[in-house]
Design a protein that fits this description.
Blueprint (H helix, E strand, L loop, with lengths): L5 E4 L8 H17 L4 H4 L4 H14 L7 H15 L4 H19 L8 H9 L4 E5 L16 E4 L10 H11 L6 E5 L2 H10 L3 E5 L14 E3 L4 H6 L4
Parallel strand pairs: 1-2, 1-4, 2-3, 4-5, 5-6
Helix pairs in contact: 1-5, 3-4, 4-5
Bound molecules: magnesium ion.
Length: 234
């Protein structure tokens, strides 16, 4: 891969296991909100009941589905309004709930080998992140290895739409074929990046056996394998 001049990474389930940090953040958020509200308002609150309200919100407003911050806030507002809170109370509790969730959600544990690999690669290539989630990479310790991180909530459409990939290429000031994108999601990462002409690595984080051939240039199961992949072999 001699022509590669920069690397872009997906974040969730590529650099860390996302479900764990989200579940923990939801627990901490619920406990915090329980401390702020009458007992009845949070009595039925669970992952399932929260997700049911969230689904309603997304069905009503599909145009906000890619903005996880707005979706979560509106879900909390709706939840508290259902419990009998005034609009102002619901807005305030939603803001407070989101603040705690967001803070906890950033406490991710990188997969083994991630820090070493990024540290090594960042000395050779500019690194950037492209995420459909709301991880605040640049505020995390891992952010030190990256030039920038693009979150779908600041764009009209999430991956696999070309818009974020094109913005990353423009900021990196390189051609699409000079950029290697690494991600765990076949549709969002592999297909999305290859549609704009980038080279792609499918990071098969969970050791899946896909039913169909994955249209990636390479597949890896550990991030360290990138180093070998990028080393010219004669
Ligand atoms: Mg991912």
């Amino acid at each position: 891969m001699k022509s590669i001049r920069a690397l872009t990474f997906d974040l969730d389930n590529t650099l860390w296991e996302t479900d764990l940090s989200i579940l923990n953040a939801e627990d901490v958020m619920a406990a915090h909100l329980r401390g702020l509200t009458p007992a009845a308002w949070m009595a039925d609150f669970s992952l399932e009941t929260f997700r049911a309200v969230r689904q309603q919100i997304v069905q009503e407003q599909p145009e906000i589905a890619h903005n996880l911050t707005v979706v979560r806030r509106q879900t909390l507002v709706r939840w508290f309004q259902h419990q009998g809170a005034t609009e102002a109370e619901a807005e305030e509790l939603a803001g407070e709930g989101f603040r705690i969730f967001y803070q906890e959600r950033q406490k991710v544990k990188p997969y083994p080998g991630t820090v070493e690999t990024l540290s090594h690669l960042s000395k050779i290539y500019p690194l950037a992140a492209i995420t459909n989630g709301n991880a605040d990479l640049m505020a995390m310790p891992l952010g030190e290895y990256f030039q920038f991180s693009l979150q779908s909530q600041h764009f009209p459409k999430p991956k696999p739409d070309p818009v974020m990939f094109e913005e990353a290429l423009a900021r990196l000031n390189i051609e699409a074929h000079e950029c290697l994108h690494i991600g765990d999601d076949i549709e969002h990462d592999v297909i999305g990046a290859s549609q704009v002409g980038m080279k792609t690595v499918w990071f098969n984080t969970h050791g899946r056996t896909p039913e169909e051939a994955v249209p990636a240039d390479h597949t890896i199961t550990r991030l360290e394998q990138l180093v070998d992949l990028l080393t010219p072999h004669d």
